[in-house]
Design a protein that fits this description.
The complex is a heterodimer of chains A (113) and B (113). Chain A has 113 residues and is mainly β. Helix content of chain A is 0%, strand content 56%. In chain B, strands 2, 4, 5, 9, 10 and 11 form a 6-stranded mixed sheet that branches. In chain B, strands 1-3-8-7-6 form a 5-stranded antiparallel sheet, with no helix packed on it. Chain B has strands at residues 4-5, 10-14, 19-25, 30-38, 45-51, 56-59, 62-67, 72-77, 86-94, 101-103, 107-112. Classes of the chains: A mainly beta (113), B mainly beta (113).
């Protein structure tokens, strides 16, 4: 009965590869997010989708492409991985307009070697 | 540009005593503030929030205080319990209904039995 799930939990890959992280929520929420927590521990928003529509797109390299096949899923595809992409990536969801109740997934630790 | 600052990376208190976690912000457009709690290998979970029209919000053992003139908020946990040991993130939202949250770096709280 996991509310927000992410796969995989750990991802180790080499520079230049392309990888995807999947996120699913079973809460019936309309809005989903991707956050990045870097080595300095800052949790920064990358993207937000509402009902499959992109509503927040922070200054993120275009190597990162979110895809929302339906409102319960928000996947993150990363092309040409770089060392600096190593971080923990968190997916989250919330009801539309309820920024306070963001429910986070367990995170995906991406290591680029 | 750190708009939300948590200047204490760690805090250690004895069980039963009060824990006070501090957060400062620089953006006067922030109108809603939240605290999230994070255990290792898990995503952050929402703890408590406060609107800028209030100066205090209480929920059980947790109280958040907001001092707008000082651009400062604090989270009080009393009495502290060992299960409260976690990283606490302060977050803020701008006026205008944006879904975007800005997070601080977090403070690691350790409650000793």
């Amino acid at each position: 009965d996991t509310a927000v799930s992410q796969t995989p939990k750990y991802l180790v890959t080499q520079m230049g590869n392309d990888k995807s992280i999947k996120c699913e929520q079973n809460l019936g929420h309309d809005t989903m997010y991707w956050y990045k927590q870097d080595s300095k521990k800052f949790l920064k928003i990358m993207f937000s989708y509402n009902n499959k529509e992109l509503i927040i797109n922070e200054t993120v390299p275009n190597r990162f492409s979110p895809k929302s096949p339906d409102k319960a899923h928000l996947n993150l595809h990363i092309n040409s991985l770089e060392l600096g992409d190593s971080a923990v990536y968190f997916c989250a969801s919330s009801r539309r307009g309820s920024v306070d109740e963001q429910y986070f997934g367990p995170g995906t630790r991406l290591t680029v070697t | 540009d750190q708009q939300v600052k948590q200047n204490s990376p760690s805090l250690s208190v004895q069980e039963g005593r009060i824990s006070i976690l501090n957060c400062d912000y620089t953006n006067s457009m922030f109108d809603y503030f939240l605290w999230y709690k994070k255990y290792p290998a898990e995503g952050p979970t929402f703890l408590i929030s406060i609107s800028s029209i209030k100066d205090k919000n209480e929920d059980g053992r947790f109280t958040v205080f907001l001092n707008k003139s000082a651009k400062h908020l604090s989270l009080h946990i009393v009495p502290s319990q060992p299960g409260d040991s976690a990283v606490y993130f302060c977050a803020a939202r701008s006026k205008g209904g944006s879904e975007k949250l800005v997070f601080g770096k977090g403070t690691k709280l350790t409650v000793n039995p």
